[in-house]
C-alpha cells in the first residue's frame, strides 16, 4: 500500500478545475482512495466530486495525474491520498483576524488541522503513516517582501514539522515545486526553495515554470496539473527505488533561466544550466555540470557550487561573438580571473581582448578559486594555498601588488610601490615617497587615499599615453567637488571618445598637482 499527502495552497487544490476538465486518461479505480474528512472515511477517489477544497468542492489537482501514473505502474497496489489545500495561504505567520497560515507555530490553524486530519486517516488505515508528502505553495509569500525574505527558514521549519507530526519519520521524503517568478518577490522565494532542495537530502523539487497557466497568470491549467502530478510521481518512484528524485545518475538535464534573477538548480546528473543576461543564481548539484551563457549578461550571475576540475563554464557563445577562436582565452586575455576576496573567483570576458574596452563581469564562482582556462573547462585542479605572508618591510619600502578588483593595499613608512589592478582598489601609501603604478587601464577608478604632491608619484608609463599626456589632453584632471581630483584617461585625446575615469585622489585638488607627480614614460 502507498500513502501520500498533497498539501499547500490553491495550485495544490486545483483551483478552477472540475469534472469537465479531467484528463482523458482518468478511469474510476476502486484501489485509489482519498480521505473524506467530513465522513471520516476512505472513499474511492472521484475527481470533481471528493477532491475539492474550501469554496471549490469540484476542484481536482496534481493527485489525479499522480494516481493515473501510479496505477499504470502498480496495477494491484492500494493508493491512499490525503489532500489539504487552502487558497491564498502564506507560510509566514499572519496574526490578522480571520487570517490563516501554514506555519507550524500558528496554533489551531492550517498545519494543526491537517495534522489532525492525517491522524484520523492513519487510524482508519491501521495506523499506517504517509510515506511521502507533496507540498505546493509559496506564491502568497512571494507577494510580501518580508515573507519572501523569511521563506527559506520557514520552509525548513515546516519540513521538520511535517516529518515529526505527519510522517513520524525524520528522513521522510517531501517533494515540492519551485514557483515561477511572476510575483513581486518570486525570484527570492524560488531561490530559497532551490537552496533547501540542496540542503535537505530527503527533499526534492520540481520546476513549476514549465506548467501552463490559466489566463490569470497564477493558477495552473489542466495541463499544468497533469505535468505537476507526473513530476511528483517521478519523484515518488525514484525514492522507492532508493535514488534522489531531483536528477538521475546519467546524462542529467537541461535547466533554462526564465529571466534575470532566476534560481536554477540541477540534480545528481551532469546538467546544463542556461543562464539569462541577469543576475541568476545557479546551483549545479552533483555530476559534471555545464553553466552556459548565450549572450553577454547585463549583471553577473552567481554559481554556488562550481567544482574545479569537474564542472565547466561554457563561454563559447560570448567568445565567438568577440571573434575569438583560440584555445586558451585566459592566457590570450579574453577571459580574466580575479579572486573575489571571499574564497571564490570573479570571471570577466573582454570582448575585444587586452588593451581595449572594459571587460564585462559575467559570473562569480562562490568558494571556488580558479587560476587558469583549464580550471574553467573541467580540467586543471583547485588553486594551491596562498603563499606565506611577505617578510616585514624595511625602511626602503616594499612592493605591494593588488590581487584583484576591490583589493586594499597599505604601504609602510618607507618608499613603497603599490601596483593596482584594473578595478576599484583602495591604495594607502603611508609615509615616504611612494609610487602608485597601473600596468593596464582600469575598468573602474581606484582610490588613492593619501597622495602627497611633490613626494609621491603616479606611474602610468605602461599605458602608452606619451610623455606629453597632460599637455596633449590624454590625461584630464577634474575637481571632484570635495577638494579632491578625478583623473581621466583619454587615449585618443580631445574630440574623440569620452575619457575613462581611472583614479580618484582624495583631498588633493587639481591645482596642487605638478609635472613631478607623474611618470608617463
Any descriptors?
single chain, 521 residues, alpha/beta, 18% helix, elongated
Helix-strand blueprint:
Layout: E1 2-8, H1 10-13, E2 32-36, E3 41-44, H2 62-73, E4 79-85, H3 110-123, E5 132-136, H4 145-149, H5 151-167, E6 173-178, H6 186-199, E7 203-207, H7 222-240, E8 254-256, E9 263-265, E10 272-275, E11 281-283, E12 290-293, E13 301-303, E14 312-314, H8 316-321, E15 335-339, E16 345-349, E17 360-365, H9 373-376, E18 399-401, E19 408-410, E20 417-420, E21 426-428, E22 435-438, E23 446-448, E24 457-459, E25 475-479, E26 485-489, E27 500-505, E28 518-519
Parallel strand pairs: 1-4, 1-5, 2-4, 5-6, 6-7, 8-10, 9-11, 10-12, 11-13, 12-14, 13-17, 18-20, 19-21, 20-22, 21-23, 22-24, 23-27, 24-28
Antiparallel strand pairs: 2-3, 15-16, 16-17, 25-26, 26-27
Helix pairs in contact: 2-7, 5-6
Folded structure, characterized:
The chain is α/β, with parallel strands linked by helices and 521 residues long. Helices cover 18% and strands 23% of the residues. It has nine helices and 28 strands. The strands form five sheets. Strands 3-2-4-1-5-6-7 form a seven-stranded mixed beta sheet, sandwiched between helices. Strands 9-11-13-17-16-15 form a six-stranded mixed beta sheet, covered by helices on one side. It has a six-stranded mixed beta sheet with strand order 19-21-23-27-26-25, with no helix packed on it. α6 links the parallel β6 and β7 (203-207).
